[in-house]
Amino acid sequence: MKRIFPKRLVSVLLYASIALGAYFLSVEVQSYWGRQAVEGTGLVSIPLEEALAKARAANRLVLVDVSAIWCSTCRKLDSTVFSDDRVKQFIGEHFIFTRLEYESEEGQQFLEKRDVSGFPTLWLLNGDGKVVKRLRVVFTPVDFLSQLRD
Question: pLDDT tens across 24-52, in order?
């Protein structure tokens, strides 16, 4: 009796299925951890257009955090900097905060106009949406606050 599928093809398909399953499982786990890190910051993010309007009305700058939910560096920034009470207080007193998820429509529209080479990417914008400063990604609250104060 002749086999319909050669043994080698079955093996390749099996290994490919296992690899694909592992990849999607990893993405789900990374995304879960990312959502937990974002929630742990306690920062309230508002849509960019609303943030720009509030910034114009309050004469403040908008702190834009472009992140990807699955990004481990973004999680580190959330857990070491954005979750720090001093940072949260300073942001709340001096800035309008918005977090743009890379994979969202709003994030994609924002990134079409900006040069991004990785995540997270942080900007200070004026109320008209013009870049005032691009912030370095640092992982200590003191260094981050010093950038915001400059």
Answer: 887 777 777 777 777 888 888 999 999 99
